Amino acid sequence: MNDGLVLEDEKVLLRALLPGDFNNLLPFALNEPDTWYYSLVTAAGEDGMQNYLQLAFEAKAQGKEFPFIVFDKTVNEYAGSTRFYDINFPFKTLQLGYTWYGEKFRGTGLNKHCKFLLLQFAFENLDMERVEFRADAANERSVAAMKSIGCTVDGILRGSMPKRQGGRRDSIVLSILKDEWFGSVKERLRARL
Q1: What is d(CA 157, CA 173) in angstroms, rounded to the nearest whole number?
Q2: Are the C-beta atoms of 68 and 59 separated by less than 8 Å?
């Protein structure tokens, strides 16, 4: 995966997140700080967004992550960000997450378009066997979105991560396997686009 990678359909364009995208994403950080309530790393505020991007670029340089910026083609606006992370080519697994969208883009179908393109690339271009998703088990919106694209719940990791607000969170783990993608998930998700 390189900075020239672009995934797109009629609704969305995903491309490599670049340092210059700070200005494209800053309005969300300044105006919608609750977007990162359940996130382990917040991008709220100018310093938060700077740190969020810096961590993403460092992990990308190490080959552990590949962050994308999300552009909504129907309204010609940047909508948020997502990424592949914990990429393990020898085991043919990766995680898909760090996904967030501005408030006006939620519930518009944008997420399904993004996930279709990302899953298609993971299974059909990168030859992954498993794509995993994780979230705070209390984040009902995120969990429902993952289930709606065809994820299967693998289980709950109790007290797995510290919460920024204090205490520890339970993390729900979901996944899609390659044979599930080709068996039914791809066509079911495509039908919902």
Answers
A1: 7
A2: no
Burial of 7 (0-12, 13-18, 19+ CB in 10 A): middle
CA–CA gap between residue 122 and residue 150 (Å, rounded) = 15
- The tokens 């495509």 sit on which residue? 190
DSSP three-state, residue 47: helix
pLDDT tens-digit profile of 115-139? 999 999 999 999 999 999 999 999 9
| Alpha carbon separation from 65 to 2, 56, 149, 170 (Å, rounded) | 11, 7, 22, 23
β-pair type (93-101, 130-136): parallel
The residue behind tokens 């900075």 is 3
Beta bridge partners of 156: 172
The residue to which tokens 């030859």 are assigned:
127
d(CA 28, CA 173): 27
**3-state secondary structure (DSSP) of residue 62:** coil
Q: pTM value? A: 0.95
CA–CA dist 162, 27 (Å, integer): 27
pLDDT in tens, 137-192: 999 999 999 999 999 999 999 999 999 889 999 999 999 999 999 999 999 999 99
